[in-house]
Please model this.
Amino acid sequence: MKQLLSVVVSVYNEEAVLEQFYLEAKQVLECIQWDYELLFVNDGSCDKSCEIMSRMAERDKKVKMISFSRNFGHEAAMIAGIDYSRGDGIICMDADLQHPPECIPEIVEKFEEGYQVINMVRTKNESAGLIKNLASAAFYKVINVLSEVHFEHNASDFFAVSRPVAQVLKKSYRERVRFLRGYVQNVGFRHTAIPYEAGLRAAGESKYSIRKLFQFSINTIVCFSNLPLKLGIYAGLMAAVMGIIVLVYTLLTRGGAPSGYATIVILNCFMFAVLFLIVGIIGEYISILFTELKDRPIYIVENTKNVE
Ligand code: UDP
Ligand code: MG
Model:
C-alpha cells in the first residue's frame, strides 16, 4: 500500500492564485511515490475562492475542501486541516505560492528517512519588505530571551508533520490564543529543517498587516513566557533599593537633602509609568486567560467537499 500525503492549504480570498497553485502543486504531487490528498481549508473567503475550489473538488477527487462559517484566521485553518487530514505525512502550506510546491519531494524524502517534524526555514523573504523582516528578526530575539523553549529563527508556517505528531496536535495544544509554529518546534520527535527561499506572492495581496503581526507577537510572548508577569517583583525591588538609598542619604545629611520640585515630579512620573506598564502586562495575561476560559470553538465548519 502506498503511503498517503496530505497537503493542507489555508485559503482566504485567494481567487487570484488558486488555479495557478493547483496546477503547480498537482504537477509536483503526481510525480512523487506517495498517494496524496490536497486539502483546502476555506477560511471564510468572500471572493470567488470557494466556487473555484468547489469546481476543482468536483473535477478531481483528490481535492478536498473544508469551508468555515466565517474567517477564523490562518492558524485555525491549519489546525482544521490537520484535524481532517488522514495522511501518514501532513504538509501545511500557503496558497500564494510563497511556499514553493517544488519543496514537496524533498519533504517526502525526509519522511522516508524517518523524520517526524520538518520545519521549512526561510533563507530569504523578498515580499516581506524591510520593516517586516526587521520586526521578525527582533521578535525571534525577544522570544528566545523570554521563553524557556527555543524558537528557530525564520521558521515559517510552512512545515510538515508525521501522523503521530498530528495525533498530538489533534488532542493537545488546543489553545485559543496560540502559536502553532512554536508547538510544532517543541513537540520533540525526530526533527529536521529544510531551507527554502520565499519568493514573491504569485498574485493577490498579503492578509497580514503590521498591526496584526504585532498583536500576534504579543500573544506569542504571553503564551510562551511567564517572565513579563514577574517584572512587577523586579520593579518593586528596584524601587525599594532606591528608597533605602535616599533614606540613608537623608539621614546622613541630617535632612539636609536639597528639596527639588523637578526631582519629585520626574520620579513620580517614572514610577507611575512602571506601575501602569506592569498593570497592562497583567491585563494581557488576564485577557488571554479569559479567552481560554470561555472555551469557544477554534473554528466552525459549515460544509465540506470530498471529505468522509
Ligand atoms: N490566510 C488564511 N486566513 C487569514 C489570513 C490568511 O487562511 O485570515 C491564508 C492565506 O490565504 C494564505 C496564508 O494564509 O494562504 C498566508 O497568508 P498571507 O500570504 O497573506 O501572509 P504572508 O505570506 O504575507 O505572511
Ligand atoms: Mg504569503
